[in-house]
Specification:
With 491 residues, the protein is of the alpha/beta class. Helices cover 34% and strands 21% of the residues. It has 2 domains: 3-78 and 411-475, Urease, subunit C, domain 1 (Roll), CATH 2.30.40; 80-402, Alpha-Beta Barrel (TIM Barrel). It has 16 helices and 18 strands. It is globular and about 65 Å long. It starts with a strand and ends with a helix. Bound molecules: zinc ion. The site of zinc ion has 6 residues, from loops.
């Protein structure tokens, strides 16, 4: 039996519309979107909310859910897509926000040293536990899909696990436990830098050669749940031009092309990486990646902070996406990307929470526009065809992220996955904005500039009800397990 959701307002094609009923079928997909059901009285009666069951996510069609759910006081939007995540870095939150007095200030590279100390201590079980909590926090904040840029493959020091997919499988299990959709990007990592072997800490990230990488990818594929209701799939990533030489990059591009996989890479996050690339190849990172055949409409450039002349055009003309991670980029002192150039070049924009210093999609989409204002000294930078800003920001948080995956997610339309988020319309942050008729555009803008993750009340992933009235399934047990790991790592 299909389920029908009807909120006060529903976000479709960048606009909030009243009277929309969203039908989700057993397939987990949206089977119908009707925009005038309120007027015809089909959904005139409020239906009690489904009871909370701590053990199992609710599903449309199950005995405890009701066929029609009237979401009063709610705004229904497509689930956000987190296009860049290193889930284990959730452990570092609040642990790197200091400098040792009398020492030079910290930067990206000193932060990285701290991150390596964490990766050295994580067992497979730890990784699964920490990642599960990060994914649950994402769901609670309104993300329904995550692209996990996964680069931990071996034992500390580089010893091999019996199953080359041991740690990848842990990430998949963590996502399944939490109930979030996942694109697992197995990351290729070869070296510490040009003419620089991997350090001891980096040996955990390394496959010996492209053949070993391809075999490990095959082994990982066996762990992917092919159930269409749980959007889960595989992709690949080049860690960076620093971590892979030209031959490796070319092999990776061929592999992704042959299998038609999403291909992501960190690009131009730090000036040092660009200088090294220029010395090694004579090219800037995006130019070098283009030369090696990585750029296509399946390619996502993560960060794209310090692009030179013509690099945005290379990405845009290939149909690629720039995944901006504003909170992490500010936290690490990376800099501000030129989003105007990327948009003008035709590149799509997506968002990621990367190091998880904070997990809040509203903060990320808002920061796209705010960063452009700070960079240019002007307002109203990321406008749509009518001069509105919020639709562009929500588009980056949803459809832009979807473009970095192979899934039909990020929008409320017939055939898309039932990845949906219901927001509290009466939150103090939004109070009074929609007091007059025809205020839908102002309300959407208010959600963009003043919204926060606690607006999120209900979340469905492929039609499965995974956050109910602000309550996350299985949170308490997951938190207790996480605390044990955090205590051990940091004591
Ligand atoms: Zn990253």
């Amino acid at each position: 039996m299909p389920g029908i959701l009807q909120a006060d307002l529903t976000l479709i094609d960048g606009r909030l519309k009243p009277g929309v009923a969203v039908h989700v079928g057993r397939s987990g997909r949206i089977t119908k979107v009707s925009e005038d059901e309120l007027a015809t009285g089909v959904m005139a009666t409020a239906v009690p909310r489904p009871p909370i069951d701590e053990s199992q996510p609710g599903e449309f069609g199950s005995p405890r859910s009701r066929r029609k759910v009237r979401l009063r006081g709610r705004i229904l939007i497509p689930g956000f897509v987190n296009a860049h995540s290193h889930a284990f870095q959730r452990l570092m939150r609040g642990r790197t926000e200091y400098t040792v007095l009398g020492q030079p200030g910290t930067d990206f590279w000193s932060w990285r040293s701290g991150m390596y100390r964490v990766t050295e201590q994580l067992s497979p079980e730890d990784l699964e536990t920490v990642s599960a909590l990060a994914y649950m926090e994402m769901l609670r904040a309104g993300f329904t899909h995550v692209c996990e840029f996964h680069y931990l493959h071996q034992q500390p020091g580089g010893g091999r696990y019996a199953d080359p997919a041991e740690l990848s499988a842990r990430m998949i299990q963590a996502a399944e436990f939490a109930g979030i959709g996942m694109t697992l990007l197995r990351v290729a990592y070869q070296r510490g830098g040009p003419n620089e072997p991997a350090s001891r800490e980096q040996r955990r990230f390394i496959d010996s050669d492209p053949e070993a990488f391809a075999k490990a990818l095959e082994a990982t594929a066996a762990h992917i749940d092919t159930d269409d209701r749980r959007p889960q799939s595989l992709g690949v990533a080049a860690h960076s031009v620093r971590a892979l030489d030209t031959d490796w990059l070319r092999e990776l591009a061929r592999l992704a092309e042959r299998k038609q996989l999403p291909l992501h890479a960190h690009v131009a996050e730090q000036p040092r990486e660009i200088d090294q690339c220029l010395v090694e190849t004579g090219k800037r990172p995006m130019e070098h990646l283009a030369d090696c055949g990585l750029l296509s409409d399946r390619f996502t450039a993560v960060h794209a902070t310090h692009l030179g002349t013509g690099e945005a055009e290379l990405l845009g003309s290939a149909g690629g996406t720039a995944c901006i991670c504003p909170t992490t980029e500010r936290n690490l002192g990376d800099g501000l990307p030129d989003l105007g150039a990327l948009r003008a070049a035709g590149a799509k924009l997506a968002i990621g929470t990367d190091s998880h210093v904070r997990i809040d999609p509203f903060a990320e989409i808002r920061a796209l526009e705010d960063g452009e204002r700070l960079r240019t000294g002007k307002r109203g930078r990321l406008t749509d065809h009518e001069g509105l800003i919020a639709p562009t920001l929500f588009d980056a948080g949803t459809l832009g992220g979807a473009a970095t995956t192979t899934h039909e997610i990020g929008e409320i339309r017939e055939g898309a996955m039932g990845d949906l988020v219901a927001l509290e319309a009466d939150d103090p942050a939004l109070a009074g904005v929609a007091a007059s008729r025809g205020s839908e555009d102002a309300l959407l803008a208010a959600i963009a500039v003043a919204g926060h993750s606690r607006l999120v009340k209900d979340v469905w992933v492929g039609g499965r009800h995974v956050v109910t009235d602000g309550v996350l399934l299985r949170w308490q047990g997951a938190l207790e397990a996480y605390n044990k790991v955090a205590k051990r790592i940091w004591s």
